[in-house]
């Protein structure tokens, strides 16, 4: 039974090593999360032109549009510049019955 105390010390040192490793992993994970949260998002690669980026953000909606949560035909019409959404989408029978995920065709007017 002389090996019993040696075995207990070995188990305790194994637990201490596992505990230290888990704390190290937790520290690394928190550090990575903080780095991604506070990373400066305003830096763009040198090959990206800010003028092109602004044009992409201000361009009209795509021809196929998926309704998002809280959107109405009126807000989509204003956003996309299409005053004739109901007329161009015969599957919309009731303009008040718009739900997230509904796929509609957008035809932006060139006047907007």
UniProtKB/TrEMBL annotation:
Swiss-Prot/TrEMBL keywords: Membrane, Transmembrane, Transmembrane helix
Domain LysM span(s) in chain numbering: 65-107
Keyword Thylakoid: no
InterPro entries, alphabetized: LysM, LysM_dom_sf
Record field: transmembrane: 20-38
CDD domains in the cross-refs: LysM
Keyword Membrane carried by entry: yes
Tree of life domain: Eukaryota
Protein name as catalogued: LysM domain-containing protein
Native source organism of the sequence: Vigna unguiculata (Cowpea)
Taxonomic lineage: Eukaryota, Viridiplantae, Streptophyta, Embryophyta, Tracheophyta
